[in-house]
Amino acid sequence: MNFNLKAAGTLISRAKQFTEEKLGQATDRTAYDDNFDHLLLDADRAKAWTERLISNVSIFLQPNPNERLEDFILTKFDQKTNKQNIVEQLGQCMVEAGNDFGSSTQYGSTLIKCGQTHQKLGHIYKDFIQSSVMGYMQPLKSFLEGEMKSITKERRTLEMRRLDLDAARSKQKKNKMLSRNNNTPVAMADSSDADVRHAQAEFERQYHITRLALDGLPNAQNHHLSCLFDLIESELQYHQKSVQILEELHRKIGLSKSIPHASSPRLRTAIIKFDYEALDSNELSVLAKETVNIISDGDDSDWVTVEKQLSKQHGRVPRAYLQIDASLS
């Protein structure tokens, strides 16, 4: 019974202290040191960004929100599904269309080959999702459910211990003021001093526990870095396998010869023979031995419009000042 009364008294004092702080009536609030405040900010940052990373990687792996919800529900009920993904569905559609058109026709046989290829792509995409979830997302989720939840719990306990300490100090301060007026028994003043010592010891103990938990954050981030490397490695392997499968399809359907790309015309260039100072806004100042691109060379026999290669400034320069590259004429 005494224990319950004491616990109730502690809760009341804690609530009173919290209310006074919120209303700005409490002036003596125990402050943490700058380094500890920095650790608290690091923890908040780690929690917020880890949650956002998990969310965005989930969207990256499964853009369809309905599919994500279904996967989440099945995971919660520990049920596995062999449901086809969109790549496999496309592959199956192509195979069925090819068979209907006839595997003996060129279009039908090509559709079948493309469909089989997309089914392979769908399979390796599933493997990529699985490796990404197990190698990156799951460790981050475990961090939130384990270390971060523990840190949050210890921080909450520390805040309660701080409120208890500040409430005890406030009570001690009031009793000392009353004792000066001879209105408070000595026993009551001694009791408030003992309460402060007890609250101080509990606060320091919880402060040490919380700090140990916060100091472990760099180790967690090192682990997350390793998991990030695994994610990139899985993504690289997925794309490499995809390229191999598509190159195999490329050969099977007779597209092994490389498709020629239209080459973009090379710009004509010229070397400046002498320094030239522009006389108006249509002209361009250039220096001897500078290389420029020729923009226009046919409107005026005495002038050529050129462009500087770095600054991209352009303007007219006398033809006599240019040594034009004849190989591209």
Automatic annotation (TrEMBL):
Record SMART domains: BAR, SH3
Secretion signal span: none
Domain BAR: 21-262
Record-annotated SH3 domain positions: 265-327
Keywords for this protein: SH3 domain
One cellular component (GO) term of this entry: cytoplasm
Annotated protein name in UniProt: Uncharacterized protein
Organism in which the protein naturally occurs: Rotaria magnacalcarata
